[in-house]
Amino acid sequence: MEHIRNFSIIAHVDHGKSTLADRLMEFTGAIEEREKKDQLLDTLDIERERGITIKLQAVRLKYKAKDDQEYTLHLIDTPGHVDFGYEVSRSLAACEGALLLIDATQGIEAQTIATFWQALEQDLEIIPVINKIDLPSADVDRIKEQIADVLGLDPEEAILASGKAGIGIQDILEAIVNRIPPPKGEENKPLKALIFDSYYDSYRGAVAFVRIIDGEVKKGTKIKLMSTGKEFEVTEVGAQMPHMTQLDSLKAGDVGYIAAAIKDVRDIRIGDTITDAKNPTEEPVPGFRPAKPMVYAGLYPTGSTLFEDLRDALEKYSINDAALTYEMESSPALGLGFRCGFLGLLHMEIVQERLEREYDIELITTAPNVIYKVLTKKGEEIEVRNPAQMPDPSQIDKILEPYIEANIITPNDYVGAVMQLVQEKRGVQRSFEYIDKKTVLLRYDIPMAEVLFDFHDKLKTATRGYASFDYEFKDYRPGDLVKMDIKINGEVVDALSFIVHRDKAYRVGRNIVDKMREVIPRQLFEVRIQAVIGSKVVASARVAPLRKDVLAKCYGGDITRKKKLLEKQKKGKKRMKQLGKVELPQEAFLSILKAE
Ligand code: GTP
User: Fold this and answer.
1) Which residues pair with 200 in a beta bridge?
2) 334 C-alpha to center of ligand 1: Å?
């Protein structure tokens, strides 16, 4: 174990994590220069064809250090997006150290700080790396100042590097060996392994990526998953080197994978502990919690997709994605569908896209919403995951909404613009701090619902792309919230209802009907759109009826043009939903996202 080092690379997006990881693999011979381009890609293609994820979750590297000793290094990947914050923390829990990568031209950004804190919470040895020093605009002194002032680390310990130009790679490897402590743990104790990642492999079944804390696991070991008590017999253990490579065993301190003919990836929960069924450990690794969805949306079949098709696709898909939850729901407007829970908006987009692409499903998504907690006058607490199910206002005592804690880093020229934006989003400022002469770190508490919509885009626009943003869930707080319904030709369309702050209700109502008027195609009759709160109409608009047939313009002459028009119509139809007589496009359901 003295010769094992377990580490992650943490960084803000685009600071060069993948490039550096490739370099480390290349330098240590895990991939040859030639193989990198040809063979590795070839195998990855085959693996892809076989339906295996190509992501490298934890790569084992061999490194002969300057002290002439050979070390085994495990590079553990962390997901790069805030939606997967809990998974980041589990990956870090499998390490003793982390390389904190900072782009020398950008400096510290929001995710740099967020991941730095996560690494500190796990007590990791942090090695700052100033990356991309090959660029002429690299400003190493400024970054060093930030490392000292913002992170409180010794800037002289930072390694200057360039993943792209191959500068500082050996220094990084030496620092990993010399500064990061070897794992602790005992081989003779009962098996205790932390699951930090998982995926589904059509050949091996659900595979767990683990850090062995104590004990040993090999083919034939009867294992138990501690959160559920389910037992399986191990069929294979191994490590990514970087290909999946079978090994005789994994021992305390090791990182690798365990396959046990597990059919459902939901049995392998990230953060859970694997132990020996016959000789179990007493205590699981602390901190396990099941992934909790933060955002909900309705998914409804459309076009030629039937409800059963969508159900089958969701069943199959979720074998691969343990974080997705779904339950059947029925909407008077849209019929039968599913209310799905996602970790965040990115997760939602991924699921939606994969269902469409890989399972050939046509679907309509309703606008995403957060989970509200409603305290009724009778003293009950209800969780509302679908705005249409909000109780009648006469029964409501209080509505609580989730808040996030946000870090925003911006050049000081844009501080005014950021403050104005956050104020519009009902944010409460917590702190204001210069991290160097030209850069400010702002901390806010903001209602999560406000960030779901278009916050990130607006922040980027307001700061010409310079600000960065990161957040985590904080708590639930009461808000003066109301439910707004949308009526189409006099009928409430339940799938379009949403919750909005009372002060913004008129503006949002106005914008949403205007937006819907733009996206609803003209039909043979007039379409009236109204935003209402209870029985009160807040805003309304109408889509005038269609006068002519689309094809009438073509006089039957130009056949290609005719075809094109028909195709265009067909495409447009693809994501439409028939509501009684009215056809609504997907955009209409997401109008709320653009209504502020
Ligand atoms: P995500 O995977 O999106 O989080 O990005 P990442 O952090 O893995 O960054 P990636 O390695 O993909 O690099 C981002 C961009 O920076 C790419 O265009 C790289 O070519 C470039 N880049 C990475 N490292 C260096 C470097 O050392 N020098 C220079 N000049 N460019 C670099």
Assistant:
1) 206
2) 44
